[in-house]
Amino acid sequence: MSLSMLNDDIYRLVLSFLSISELNRVHETSKTFRMAQLATEDCLWKNYTLKTINALVQRAQYKLPSLDGFKTSTTIDDFYLPYMNHGHAIQKDFKLCLIHLQTQMNIKVENNMKNVMKQLTSLQKSSKSKESPFIDQSQLVNLKDQIINQYATQLLHSPLKFKAVFNGEGAVGKSSLIYTISYGTFPDYWMFRTDGAMLNKTLDNNIKMELSLWDTAGQVDYDKLRVLSYPETDVFLVCFDVANLESFWKVHERWIPEIRNFSQYNIPILLIGCKTDLRNDTSMLQRLREQHFRTPITPSMGESLAKACHCLSYAETSSLYNNGLDDLTTLMFRSVILKATHGFQQLFPQHSNRCMLQ
């Protein structure tokens, strides 16, 4: 049978057995071949498009806990209501409907993230200190060891014992971070807290250092108990989940004020963005976009919050892939040494006590 004997109906019948990706490939083969021209017809794409809309709406639904804490209810943003149940308008203009849905979603995501930046800018402007006491992570990490050793020799007691307390909302990754720093591997089980973690370091001049890592529970039920671990802290690490915007804002709303109220004057604070591997997690990105209309917190956003909250520095980590943990360990040790010897003001002239608690 020659191609001239094949009419449009036969072509459509053949095309109906192909998947959407295969239809796309057929369409891209030629601009003049009739079968390629027919590959984009509505009759072939309607079911797929409607299924795509329906699947997106289904993914956008998420569960909320009930007041009694035992049951959950399913909810969805009002944004999706016009696209549910495939009404007459959607059936008629299904292509335009999908395009409109995706376009409006992109606009909503973009606007939400712009609002985050606006809030951060406003937060920085409302900050009491006009000067930025923030020190970039690379500046501290790249300091020569000889310089750090010179400051360490000013401390008379040996071994040098310091204390680091990790704060942040529940489930942001504090316990996994401490465990991975301590044991070099990501925990293969869920844990409520990691207790008794200790880091040891010997400097070039044979000065020995010990840094105990204190885990805390971020739940409200532990507010009174948690602050009992704050006395004699040498550095605080306030953690948030880069995929959890609420944990990000809680740094300013809850954790910095709590530390100020219940700790000694002039203690360094490091802000830590945890779970950075989620920035490349397809399912997480999809869920953030479709359910919450946003993207993960960016490094620049984390740094802006650190500056607004007068944190000493900002660092990012992925306990799952062991990324950023070596630099974080270096940051902790150098922060406590330079704090104890007043080295910050000498090494970084722009630095003032405002980067500490006050």
TrEMBL record:
The domain of life is Eukaryota
Q: Which residues form a coiled coil?
A: none
Q: Which InterPro entries match?
A: F-box-like_dom_sf, F-box_dom, P-loop_NTPase, Small_GTP-bd, Small_GTPase, Small_GTPase_Rho
What are the recorded GO MF terms, alphabetically?
GTP binding; GTPase activity
Sorted alphabetically, the keyword list is:
GTP-binding, Nucleotide-binding
Q: Which Gene3D superfamilies match?
A: P-loop containing nucleotide triphosphate hydrolases
Against PROSITE patterns, the record matches this protein to: FBOX, RAB, RAS, RHO
Q: List, for all copies, the residue spans of the domain called F-box.
A: 1-48
Q: Which Pfam families match?
A: Ras
PANTHER family in the record, alphabetically?
A: RHO FAMILY GTPASE
What is the name listed in the Swiss-Prot or TrEMBL entry for this protein? F-box domain-containing protein
